[in-house]
Design goal:
- The structure is a single chain.
- The chain is of the alpha/beta class.
- The protein has a domain of 80 residues: Response regulator (Rossmann fold), CATH 3.40.50.2300.
- 33% of the residues lie in helices and 12% in strands.
- Strands 1-2-3-4 form a 4-stranded mixed β-sheet, covered by helices on one side.
- Helix 1 packs across helix 2.
- The longest helix has 16 residues.
- The chain starts with 13 loop residues before the first helix and ends in a 9-residue tail after the last strand.
Length: 126
């Protein structure tokens, strides 16, 4: 069951992660893991954690979504979910072209595989 105080709204930027991090890390019982909506937010959350003296991943695991170019360059590298962006774009353009040509779209829901890329920003659950 979701815990509302552990769900923080933010914009999608690094600055958003910096601003959202303290809302989590200053809770009476702060989380031991954070999953951010994208890698920018996760990078900001890492910076916010470090600003409070928390070690990543020893004190808090942080993961993102997108597997951006920056993810493997961080220290530690950011664990992230990789999406098939080229395939997503190809399918979206195909669907748009069908709509523009007056044809029905074959599927309202398209599921594509993702892959968790584990790097040093997450530790095993204890």
């Amino acid at each position: 069951m979701p815990v509302p105080e552990l769900q923080v709204e933010s914009d999608w930027t690094l600055e958003g992660g910096l601003a959202a991090g303290p809302l989590l890390f200053e809770l009476p019982e702060p989380p031991t893991a954070v999953f951010a909506f994208n890698d920018n937010l996760a990078i900001g959350a890492i910076q916010a954690a470090r600003a409070r003296g928390l070690r990543v991943p020893e004190d808090v695991s942080i993961a993102g979504f997108d597997d951006s170019d920056e993810a493997p360059l961080l220290t530690p590298g950011l664990t992230s979910v990789r999406q098939p962006l080229v395939e997503m774009g190809r399918i979206a353009v195909g669907m748009l072209m069908r709509l523009l040509d007056g044809h029905p779209v074959d599927a309202l829901t398209v599921e594509l595989p993702t892959r968790l890329v584990v790097r040093g920003s997450t530790a095993p659950a204890f």
